[in-house]
Specification:
It is globular, with a radius of gyration of 24 Å. It has 498 residues and is α/β, with parallel strands linked by helices. It is built from twelve helices and 18 strands. The chain is 29% helix and 19% strand. α6 runs parallel beside α8 (224-246). β10, α11 and β11 form a beta-alpha-beta unit.
């Protein structure tokens, strides 16, 4: 009996150790950061900065988060009826060039450049669009003649201090869907991403004047609220169809406001007291989108502290984990509040680590996204150090597409190996008709007992066949696999370095 108890005790210790290791170093985890361009929140720091400085600043962001082993950058390329790339459907953004409609100087193809720099670092590039915001203020004289405010004034609704596209117009939905198709067809993006701005957040004593559209297009016995939600549903559905028709491997993700409904208005809602909700005020229903399979991932913006009385991060995160259906689920974390909020919880260095631990302990949550990029860049070093040491010490694979096809991948072939000044460069070859990431692993035991650890990733587009890794010589056995954008992975090709 004594021996049995000792063995049971040792088994429990081992099991706990394995559990802790898996929690601390997951092989698959989405680690994203929002890079906001509206009003130059993160990048560019100014639309009037020289192109060289804008490039340097973007690379600084990427390098910082690459060093933290993040694997996705969600970059805002449409803020308010504008664009960060050349298109006949929208003017150049003033946040990039200093003046709306003015092309950038000495910065050819900025979107393609950003995508290439992101991929060089083994990170996915998610193109973030704000669909319905037409202007950021009422200064319409600053808008370019090609802006939809001038081209299609009948699409515009003034609300508060902004203009919005009318979501109830079919022409608006068609325009937005065409914008998305153009991006997906012409650029090597890994995903299209919408934020939380659907119908605008409500302003007291103001009316969003879409009554004429409702009277014209509303169905019999359909109330205004349901009609508005159906408009947003249509855009989400059509965007998903357009993306998958152009390139089936490109994902579609949305980051809604964190509270779907409070449970005082619906028993299915969360135990919160949010002043506005996604379903009732923004007319967005992400539960439906997941159920219908219109999304590849959802990132609720749970920007409150763990035990904030009105809207607890803990309660909301657990609520979403219980609602998740056919989409990947990540948590949006408000790192911008660290030491910058009236809630005293944000003064503690362990607030974000506690939130990450909570997410990792939810079986249906497979990652986190930080808002926004500048929140850790050059500040909050103690928090960053904790993240680097305890949470993001090693790279992680991006989660597989939940409804993606299952494909059998051949392992990559060794190209060349060159050694110089204790640095080794390993080039691998692989052919496919979709983009891929090559993944470099290290092992102590030659990949015989699943002890491999992911150490680097590099991107190969659908038009390329090879890529290289560069790293310091070490005692570890190295091996390379290929993983496609759906999440299918080949066997590891061992590499012998003499």
């Amino acid at each position: 009996m004594r021996i049995t108890l000792i063995l049971a005790f040792l088994f429990l210790i081992t099991a706990c150790s394995v559990s802790k290791r898996r929690t601390a170093i997951p092989k698959t985890e989405f680690r994203g950061v929002w890079i906001a361009s509206v009003v130059n929140i993160d990048w560019p720091k100014s639309g009037t900065d020289p192109a060289a400085k804008q490039k340097q600043d973007f690379i600084e962001i990427l390098d910082f988060y690459q060093n933290l082993n993040f694997n996705a950058a969600i970059v805002q390329i449409r803020t308010a009826g504008d664009a960060f790339y050349p298109t006949e459907m929208a003017p150049w953004s003033k946040y990039l060039t200093g003046k709306e409609g003015q092309p950038p100087t000495d910065f050819d193809h900025p979107l393609q450049w950003m995508i290439d720099e992101t991929h060089k670092r083994g990170m996915e590039f998610h193109a973030w669009l704000n669909p319905y915001r037409a202007t950021f203020d009422l200064d319409t004289l600053a808008l370019a003649p090609s802006h939809d405010y001038y081209q299609h004034p009948e699409w515009m609704i003034k609300y508060g201090k902004k203009y919005y596209y009318n979501p109830g117009l079919q022409e608006v939905q068609t325009k937005l869907t065409q914008l998305i198709s153009e991006i997906v067809e012409n650029y090597k993006v890994d995903a299209i991403h919408f934020d939380d701005y659907f119908y605008p957040y409500k302003i007291k004593d103001e009316v969003f004047n879409d009554s004429l559209s409702y009277t014209t297009y509303g169905l019999p016995n359909q109330n205004l609220e349901d009609w508005r939600r159906s408009n947003v549903d249509s855009l989400v559905k059509n965007a998903h169809l357009a993306i998958k028709k152009a390139k089936p491997w490109v994902q579609f993700g949305i980051s809604p406001f964190g509270v779907w409904k409070n449970n005082d208005t619906d028993p299915r809602g969360s135990a919160t007291k949010a002043g506005q909700t996604t379903y009732e005020d923004l007319y967005a229903d992400p539960l439906l989108w997941m159920e219908k399979g219109w999304l590849d991932y959802l990132v609720p913006q749970v920007y409150w502290s763990m035990d904030y009385p009105v809207a607890s991060h803990r309660i909301i995160t657990e609520w979403w984990a219980n609602q998740s259906t056919y989409s990947n689920l990540y948590v949006g974390n408000g790192t911008y509040k660290i030491r910058n909020n009236a809630d005293k919880a944000w003064k503690r260095r362990n607030e974000i680590p506690k939130q990450l631990t909570l997410a990792r302990n939810q079986a249906k949550i497979s990652g986190n996204v930080f808002f926004s990029a500048k929140s850790l860049l050059g500040k909050n070093e103690r928090v960053t150090h904790t993240l680097q040491r305890k949470f993001y010490r090693y790279p992680a694979q991006n989660p597989p597409v939940p409804q993606g096809p299952k494909r059998s991948l051949t392992a990559p072939n060794l190209g060349t190996i060159s050694i110089r000044n204790k640095q080794v460069e390993i080039c691998m070859e692989h052919k496919d008709t979709v983009p891929r990431f090559l993944q470099l692993y290290r092992s102590k035991n030659g990949f015989t007992d699943s002890d491999e650890l992911l150490v680097q990733k590099t991107y190969i587009s659908e038009t390329e066949n090879s890529a290289c890794f560069s790293l310091k010589l070490s005692k570890y056995q190295l091996g390379v696999s290929v993983i496609d954008p759906y999440g299918n992975e080949s066997k590891i090709t061992p590499i012998t370095i003499n």
